[in-house]
Design goal:
Elements lengths: L5 E6 L13 H18 L4 H8 L1 E12 L8 E11 L3 E10 L6 E13 L19
Antiparallel strand pairs: 1-3, 2-5, 3-4, 4-5
Length: 137
């Protein structure tokens, strides 16, 4: 099982902020989604191929975040993603958001549970184990 923490740099733009210049809380989930998508691509997951050729889709079934400090307009953020738990048809992804670097100030601590479903019936389907094997990246 892969243990590396994926990192994605994100810049805070005006469109990400509220009237006070602080990142609007829902946008942290957008940043986390971008990091998850990029991380899964590095692991070899092509969502279109998975849906069209394997009849599988990945959906978020639970999301959580603890907002510790606000990000502001112009900040450079590091958004992480790492596998925390792998089940038969779901997996937990730990995600954090830091200011400037992985060693910087922790702004948001959170994560998601993702489920694997059949694309047509939306019923649970086994996750291909090859996605999270060390040599798949």
């Amino acid at each position: 099982m892969t243990s590396e923490t994926f990192q994605l740099r994100v810049r805070v733009y005006y469109e990400d902020t509220d009237a006070q210049g602080v990142v609007y809380y829902a946008n942290y989930f957008r940043f986390m989604e971008r990091a998850r998508t990029e991380w899964l691509e590095v692991l070899g997951v092509d969502h279109v191929t998975m849906m069209n050729e394997e009849n599988r889709i990945l959906v978020v079934s639970e999301a959580n975040a603890k907002f510790l400090r606000p990000a502001v307009l112009g900040d450079s953020l590091i958004v992480t993603a790492s596998l925390e738990r792998l089940g038969r048809a779901s997996f937990d992804i730990k995600q954090n958001i830091y200011r400037n670097s992985i060693d910087g100030e922790l702004l948001v601590a959170g994560g998601v549970t993702a489920a694997c479903l059949t694309a047509d019936t939306k019923k649970p389907k086994r996750i291909p184990r090859s996605i999270f094997e060390e040599d798949s990246s």
